[in-house]
Design brief:
It contains 16 helices and 6 strands. By secondary structure, the protein is mainly alpha-helical. The protein has a two-stranded antiparallel sheet. A two-stranded antiparallel sheet has the order 3-4. It has 2 domains: 103 residues, no CATH class; 207 residues, no CATH class.
């Protein structure tokens, strides 16, 4: 065979193989009801369904057993059967939430009170916004476990090691955080005041980490995305140099963009501290009402004319300017006297401010979509679906569990 004919033959074989690959790739789009049901269950639970579970799903979405289902509503209903699997709570949810509990953003960490509380809130299907301001914590119900302790995580290590179903209310029980930890009810702020969050984000530093990682994990924005140099710098603390490297332009054109908005809101954490050393598992959350923690006044000589934190009053400067697009709630009721929209006191009301934003709802839906569909929203159809699910999430009392079944039904043909 000549050189030209050899090249032609290789090209033809390549085109045939490309066609076969394309055909195979396209078959998933037209997957039948049985394959769709398997996929939905696996995406939610992380494990394939048993024969009995699969038949139960098909009884809903393919009653005639013709391997066809066109009803989105029936597909969602069938997908909900996967919530009965312990793996949804013990594996899928834990793996999704654990990176939110540490600065390394790794899922390779033990179960803790932060993760368990998110799992419990999803399981019970209530208003998920409580995750940032509720007087709520979920603990193991088994009396043989090491008791919950504000000074250690052994309770949750034992609970995870037991392999018990966290989706069972007789295993993982909701309690008032104030009664379990001794923190005053008014000082509780959902997962932000759990031991795990305090250990990760209140240790050392200046408590700005708690604000930054809450913004990242619950509003899907890091400081770079919300940087706005048009906000007033009047609440930027003394530890931030106004002339880094001797050049004030760096502060005015860069540093102020984050600090002008972050510092007035991070003031909500002025009474919180972690007692242990950074890098150590030892310690516990400390709360000193009326007494600002020393970390808020460190490095005062960097700019002695900067803001000196007097209390835990916070203000949201991002309600105006470019970050108004985050969708702040103008009718929010903080339940505290002396507050107005975008201005109040303490971590609990700041949690309300963040959780009642449109950005919070959009973030939670996108995180679930990516967990279930295994990709970020990419196409116009994906973005339209996410927008629809955000509206449904808000209209369904912020029940996050429903977003899992909706996402699975949407991606069942992928």
């Amino acid at each position: 065979m000549g050189k030209h004919n050899s090249v032609s033959f290789v090209l033809k074989v390549g085109l045939v193989m490309l066609g076969v690959t394309s055909l195979l790739a396209g078959t998933s789009v037209h997957a039948g009801a049985r394959d769709q049901a398997k996929r939905m269950y696996d995406r939610i639970a992380g494990v394939p369904p048993t024969a009995i579970q699969l038949e139960a799903m098909l009884d809903i979405m393919d009653v005639n057993r013709d391997n066809v289902t066109d009803s989105e509503a029936l597909a969602i209903q069938a997908a909900e059967l996967a919530f009965d699997s312990p793996s949804f709570y013990n594996v899928t949810l834990k793996n999704m939430v654990t990176p939110w509990t540490n600065e390394e953003q790794t899922q390779f960490a033990d179960l803790n009170d932060f993760t368990a509380t998110v799992i419990g809130l999803v399981r019970d299907g209530g208003d998920f916004r409580e995750v940032l301001y509720g007087d709520v914590i979920y603990v193991g119900a088994d009396s043989t476990l090491t008791p919950y302790s504000v000074a250690g995580n052994q309770h949750y290590i034992d609970l995870e090691a037991s392999g018990a179903d966290l989706g069972d209310s007789a295993v993982l029980r909701r309690e008032a955080q104030s009664s379990v930890t001794g923190l005053p009810a008014a000082a509780t702020a959902g997962v932000m005041t759990t031991r795990a969050a305090a250990h990760a984000f209140f240790v050392a530093g200046t408590n700005r980490a708690m604000f930054r990682f809450t913004l990242m994990n619950f509003m899907c924005n890091d400081l770079e995305q919300v940087k706005d140099i048009s906000r007033s710098p009047d609440r930027v603390r003394q530890d931030v140099s106004r002339s880094p490297g001797g050049d004030s332009r760096i502060f005015m054109n860069s540093c102020v963009g984050c600090h002008a908005g972050m510092d007035p809101m991070a003031q909500a954490f002025a009474y919180y501290e972690w007692s242990g050393e950074e890098g150590s598992a030892e310690g516990q959350l400390q709360y000193t009402p009326g007494q600002v923690q020393g970390k808020y006044r460190i490095n005062a000589d960097n700019f002695r004319y900067g803001y000196v934190t007097p209390d835990d009053r916070w203000d949201n400067y991002w309600r105006e300017g470019q970050n108004a697009v985050l969708g702040w709630d103008n009718a929010i009721n903080y339940g505290v006297s002396g507050c107005s929209s975008g201005s109040c006191r303490g971590a609990k009301t700041l949690g309300m401010e963040l959780a009642h934003s449109d950005a919070f709802a959009e973030c939670k839906v996108k995180q679930v979509f990516e967990t279930v569909c295994l990709h970020e929203p990419a196409t116009s159809h994906d973005h339209s679906q996410v927008s629809s699910m955000v509206s449904a999430f808000q209209g369904n009392n912020y029940n996050l569990k429903g977003v899992f079944s909706e996402s699975a039904a949407y991606c069942r043909g992928d």
